[in-house]
Amino acid sequence: MSQEQYLQELLRFLEASPTAFHATATVQGILAEHGFTRLFEPDDWGELGPGSYYVSRNDSSLIAFVLEHGTSGCRSLRMAGAHTDSPGFRVKPHALHSTGGYVQLGVEVYGGAMLSTWFDRDCSLAGRVVWQDGEGRAQAGLVDFQRPLVVMPSLAVHLDPEARGRHAINRQTDLAPILMLGEEPDFATLLLEQLARQRGAARRQVASGEVLAFDLFLYDAQPPDQIGLNGEFVCSARLDNLLSCHALARALAGAATRDSLIVLNDHEEVGSATVAGAGGTFLQDVLARLFPPAQMRRILAASLFVSADNAHALHPNFMASYEPEHSPRMQAGPVIKTNAGQRYATSAATAAQFVLLCRRAGVPCQDFVMRNDMSCGSTIGPLVASGLGVPVVDVGVAQLAMHSVREMAAWRDGASFLQAMQAFFGADEALLRAPLVGV
According to the UniProt entry, what is the EC number of this protein (predicted)? Predict the structure, then answer.
């Protein structure tokens, strides 16, 4: 794949993935195109032979793996993980209310969203809807309105004495998007009508249904784009962390020739302690079904897990916010992230392994450390390391405006990370073997 092909494919992936549910479905499409077989958790898998497989949980998390010689012949795994969710706004169960002649949407903040960036943005709605069909069965489907529906208007500067300074945002009163004027429509009917439009021949299944529940989110309706005088940048919502999800899925599907696995977890932005999150049992459950305990322990000890989550690129307007000797630059390759408090799971051994991996792929890499006087974010890496006992390296692509409604990265860094992961999924066992003192 050329770098230009990579860029166009990334843009399509971002636009097709407005929520974690859609991102998981999009990845499933990539895997299916490359011949991966879908497994279902309630089924008996038996002993799997050589091949490519994937399984989903909660429709928003996914594990895919390649077995070169089947489960019995596996001795180590090239493992990598990322997260499918992004900060934003989730729609409340009782979605609509009226104020001053406006119909507004009730939302709650999801994760550590940079709230100020959501004002005055054209937003749409997408997510998962569960309904009861005409025969009394519960059905689930994805919905995406695919057009601007709501906006959170700013208060005019003339009416806000704090507008020219640092305006404090009240998360309860200031963040109710406007949907329309007039009387409140029936929100369930709106959802069923949109589902029916999307389902084509299957629309009758929806038309007579009743909405039981939904997981809906706002998303920025502006499509992702390539910008910059020389087209260096990609600007989009949800670069954190869909850029990593795309790279891992594309690398596994197109380049995995050895025993390899990726896990894409939901709910990282809210702590991961869920059935679909990295703090849950999804990865442990799948590994336990593939390998007996003694074999699994040997495999994990001989494996490497790459935790992929975007990193902070140096911002030219805020140089003082960075550790001077560890400030990642755009177009300088993937970033290795370390932290003394183990907010990142990187060790000297796993960092060295990733450096060698990048050299094999012919791409540069760089380092990030947070300033001592600032708190450090985290990733799924420490959860995987402590939960499985597998060596982990935390890496990512450098970006600006993390957790903003619209983020920015140098797209060639994404292409370089994809190259590195393609090399990883084809690497021999010698690269996975961590260096040990005295050996």
Answer: 3.4.11.-
Q: What residues does each domain of the chain span?
A: 3-85+237-432, 88-220
**What CA–CA distances, in Å, run from 350 to 4, 146, 298, 416?**
31, 42, 18, 19
Q: In this structure, what DSSP letter does residue 297 have? A: H
- The CATH code of the domain at 88-220 is 2.30.250.10
User: Can you name the residues that pair with 181 across neighbouring β-strands?
Assistant: 102
Containing 399, the helix (H) or strand (E) segment is: strand 398-400
Assess contact for 74 and 259: CB atoms under 8 A: yes
Question: Judging by beta carbons within 10 Å of its beta carbon (0-12, 13-18, 19+), is residue 325 exposed, middle or buried?
Answer: exposed
Give this prediction's pTM: 0.95
Residue 177 contacts residue 123 (beta carbons within 8 Å): yes
Average pLDDT over every residue of 200-205: 62
Tens digit of each residue's pLDDT (9 = 90 or more) over 385-404? 999 999 999 999 999 999 99
On the question of a cis peptide bond just before residue 265, with omega within 30 degrees of 0, the verdict is: no
